[in-house]
Every structure is written in C-alpha cells, then in structure tokens.
Amino acid sequence: MKILVLVKQVPDSTTNIKILPDASDIDRGGVKMVVNPFDEFAIELAVQLREKRSDVETITALTVGPATAADALRTALAVGCDDAIHLQDDSFADLDELQIAGLIAAVVRDRGYDLILRGKQEIDLDSGQVGPALGEYLGLPHVGALVQVEIADDAGSLQARRRIEGADEVLDVRLPAVLTIEKGLVEMRYPSLPNLMKAKKKPVEVLSAGDVAGLAEATSAAGGTKMSELSPPPERPPGKVLSGDVAETVPKLLRLLREEAKVL
Amino acid sequence: MTNDVLIFAEQRSDQLNPVVLQCVTPARELAGKTGGQVVAVVIGSGIEATTQAVAGHVDRVLTISDARLEHYTATHYRTALRQAVEKIDPRFLLMPASFMGRDVSPRVAVACGAGLATDVVELTLGDDNALSARRPIYNGKAFGRVTFAADRLAIASIRGNAYATAEPGGAGATESLAFAPADGDDALRCSEVAKTGGEVLDVTEADIIVSGGRSLKSEENFQILYALAEKLGAAVGASRAACDAGYQPHSRQVGLTGKTVTPKLYIACGISGAIQHLAGMRGSKVIVAINTDPEAPMCKVADYVINDDLFNVVPALTEAC
Ligand SMILES: Cc1cc2nc3c(=O)[nH]c(=O)nc-3n(C[C@H](O)[C@H](O)[C@H](O)COP(=O)(O)OP(=O)(O)OC[C@H]3O[C@@H](n4cnc5c(N)ncnc54)[C@H](O)[C@@H]3O)c2cc1C
Ligand SMILES: Nc1ncnc2c1ncn2[C@@H]1O[C@H](COP(=O)(O)O)[C@@H](O)[C@H]1O
Hints:
In chain A, about 30% of the residues lie in helices and about 25% in strands. Chain A is α/β, with parallel strands linked by helices. Chain B folds into two domains: about 5-185, HUPs (Rossmann fold, 3-Layer(aba) Sandwich), CATH 3.40.50; about 205-320, TPP-binding domain (Rossmann fold), CATH 3.40.50.1220.
C-alpha cells in the first residue's frame, strides 16, 4: 500500500493576524509557521497504519508552497514519512484551492497511491476544498470528517465511521480513496531531535511549474477565484456587563435576550 | 448560461436544512438584479415534505428522487447536482455551508468547471456584473473577498445565520428529473445511519448552544447545562479542556480543532475564550459569557456578561426560563 499525505504550512493558531496596507494578503513577516494541526492527524494515522500493517510500502508527504514550506515536510519526515514531494513555484501562489487540487492531481495521478490522507481544512483559508476536489479530479471517492477507519486486510476497501450533524454514519469505501481526518482520531507524536536530523537525509523531490505535465489544463478546468480586500472581522460592539446577584442578573439577561437581541 | 440561481435544498430524513431558506434571501437579490429565476433542487428518496417546504419560497423546484439517494454520499449527490446544473444551466449555485454542502461543493465545482467560495457571509453582484463573496479566513481573525471568474458557474456555500430566513413567495412549480448515476459513484456507499444521542442536538444543528469549560469540573456537573439546554431547545457544547478531561465527548468540542458553529445564541459557561475556542464560535450572532473573571477574553467578545459563579447562574437561569 502506498500512502500520500497532504501537508500544508499555515500560521500558528495563536498568531496575531496583521493585514498588509493594500489589503491583498496578511503580513507574513515574523509569523510563526507550523504544520496545519489537522494535517498532523493525517500524518500520524499514516505512521500508525505502517506500525499496524505489514503492507505499507511508502508514506509520501506532499506540499504546495514556498521554499520555507520545506520545514513542514521535514516535520512529516521526522515522524515517519519516507519521502516527500515539494511543489514550489512563484506562480503557484496565484492558484485558488480548486486549482491547487488540480495541480496536485496532475502530479500524483500516475503514481499509484492507494490512500491519500489530508487534514480537515487549512486553518488559513479554512475552505476545505482541496480534498473533495482532489477526489473528483482523480475520479476517486473521498470521505470527510472521519473518526474511525478500518482498512480491509487485502487493502481493497475500508470501512469508515463518522459523526456529522447529529448522525452516525458507516461508509463502505473502495480503495484508492481520499480521506479527511478529523481531530479525535489520533494525535501526532512529537518529532524528536535525532529524528529531525535523520529527516534531513530523506529524499525530497522539488518540482516547479515546468516539471508538471499538463499543468495548464489541470489549473484551468475549474476555480480561478481571486482573494482580495482582506479586513479584520467586524467589531463587536462592547458587551453589557450585568451587575448584581443572580436575582437581578438572571431576569435582566432573559429580558435583554428576548427584547433587545430577540434571540429567545 | 441562464441568469437563474439554483439552490441545493439540503435535507436529511426529509427535513429541510433551515439554512436553505436563508439561502433564498441572497438568491432573490441576485435573481432580482439579473432577471433570472430562483430554482431549488431537492435530492434524496422520500422528499415530499422538503419539496413542499421549499416550494413556497422559490420560482421552480426540481426533484431528483431515487432509492440510491436515500443517504448522502459525496459521489451520488455530486452526480445529481451536476444533472440539475446541466438541466437549469444556472449562473449561480447556492447551498448551506453545512457538512454536506462543504463536502459536496468542491466535487460539483470540479465536475461543472465552476468557481467556488465556501462559508460565505455576504454575496455581492457588482455594477460590473462580477460576483464576489465575503468569507472568514484565518479562523475568523480576518475576512476576505473572493471574486469569481465572470464566465463560469459560481458556487457559494452560505454560512448559517448570515442571512435572514426568506419570507414565503414564488410559484414553486415542481418537476422531476430521473437520477442517472455515473461510473464509479458506487466506490462510496453509506451502509448505516444512526441518529446519535437520541434527542440530543448536535452543535452544528442548533440555533442555541449552551457551552461549558474546564470549570464544570466533572461530567455530572454538565447536567446543569443539559437542564438549561433542554429548556431552551439548545445543544450542549464544550471547550477542548472539558473534552480532554473527559467531561464531554470530542464530538461536542467547539473551536479550531473542534466544530465551527454560528448559532443565534451562544452561552459560554466558564470558558475563558482562548483564541482557538473563539475560532469556532465568534461568528455566533449573540454571545453570553458567564465567567467569574471579568478579564477573561470571552467577556471581551460577549454581548452580555455575567461575572458570577456559573453554578449559581445556570440553575437560576434554567429556573427562570
Ligand atoms: C492547536 C490547538 C488547538 C486547540 N483547539 C481548541 C478547540 O478546538 N477548542 C477549544 O475550546 N480549545 C482549543 N484549544 C485549547 C485552548 O487553547 C484552551 O486551552 C481551552 O479552550 C481552554 O478551555 P476552558 O476555557 O474550558 O478552560 P480555561 O482556560 O481553564 O478557562 C476556565 C474559565 O472558567 C472560568 N471559571 C472558573 N470557575 C468558574 C465558575 N465557577 N463560574 C464561572 N466561571 C468560572 C475561569 O475564569 C476561566 O475563564 C486548542 C489549543 C491548541 C494549542
Ligand atoms: N498547498 C497545499 N499543499 C499541500 N496540501 C494542501 C495544500 N492546500 C491544501 N492542502 C491539503 O488540504 C487540506 C485542506 O485544505 P483546504 O481544502 O484548502 O482547506 C490541507 O490541510 C492539506 O492537507
């Protein structure tokens, strides 16, 4: 079984977001970049599958991102991925999520992965488009919001369980497939220093636009949106602090929720 | 391409997702500007109630009813939605930014050669006739405008409670389309669906959420939140600290690594409001903070704040409503 894990480098969740004066993007200066925490669950699941099964041949990590995104790949390699693909080209920064999926599909289509794992959603653009779109480009099923996955011994299918919007679903999925991993399944192990050193010796294939056959078609089939006019979230007006003991605050709160906010 | 607006009228067990009627509001605005119609498509098996519920709000309804569509799967529903798009040839396709909407929309976008914006809070058709969408990015720490390419179908999933529910209106003539599954659709099958927790609402479905943190101190103490939630018809949510401590299952966790919710009312009981928690709930319409610490970040984002012991406030609130 060959496993591909998609990894994206994103700003750390505690980062203060500053917007550039022309509102075209955030100010990336001094922003701490980390592996998308959702992708960590995907990486860990891949590594645990290898520990449990004898048929996992390779685990490859793939990222689309600038040179600095190599750090994210190194983390993935340090916790157990075998090799990595880094799609790196200035022109890739202009692609939207559907086009990124098209690009990834063009690169991995003939590489014979049985399982493609990814995190639930980037925590930067929060769009959740790449996994389902990649499934569509590759003609593969994808399953999101997984909390449990059982792969058949012959690696031809899997049974997935997920809990969404009040229902518990059991899905039967033929492999190859794209899976989206939810928090709660597994927590990524810590990349130790010796393993980070060893990771430096693992192979990373760097591909630029010229190396991707069929790139123009792959990125023009769908998508093509542009992001602009970034702004801070709308200010919430300062809240009302209700004072007094519960005999006062509770009726006051209920009145405000009914009459002022009109939510009860 | 027509000027019509197609809405995916999402349902489960023949219950219309309420966000669908919220999608009608921007759909009418768009159709009003372009002179197109608002058309809804209902997909499933046994979808009479949904069809009726939506028909009173739109110009036309398309139904695609088939036993194979009883349970949602991304592949079958993508195929059905593509059929609807081919039939109507709309300029816009709107749907709720629910799990289903977010799961199926990228596939539909690729299948139909469309552009896509997810979790949209506002749609604007500019004077230049270009559609753009505002949406939260970086866990709601910023917003951005997504502009669609002009010559393509534009798909947007709409965040719950971003728009008001539309008043009834429209002819609602219904026609049906036979489902034609595509090759490979059956690589994904849903073999079992069980409603979780019986009457207990999921946080992603609720208009009101009563949420608790580490300060609840035990699973039993969460009962006071359930008692309040029952009175309010609310769902119970929790912080990661509360879930990690085992007081609540992770399926109830709200936040960056939990669920993103946008209810009308979010009552945070003993939750400090760490940035990762806010990421999951700051889009709520009205926020109430019950917290002993006036400096807690949750008290800074809340509309109403009670700086008092939740173990006094919550039972009193339950009693009073
Ligand atoms: C990568 C990452 C992802 C994360 N994802 C999430 C996530 O998805 N969701 C999430 O919630 N957290 C998440 N966290 C954790 C987050 O940083 C906080 O640790 C967590 O939200 C704190 O939970 P809490 O508010 O329940 O606890 P605390 O921060 O301990 O706050 C308890 C609050 O209760 C108040 N209090 C105490 N006793 C009472 C009382 N009797 N009455 C009233 N108020 C009282 C206190 O004043 C305090 O404000 C994440 C962290 C990281 C690093
Ligand atoms: N540029 C990228 N490089 C590698 N993986 C990506 C990239 N963008 C998205 N992904 C994968 O898709 C997930 C969800 O991203 P998205 O669908 O854009 O929210 C990420 O967490 C990654 O697993």
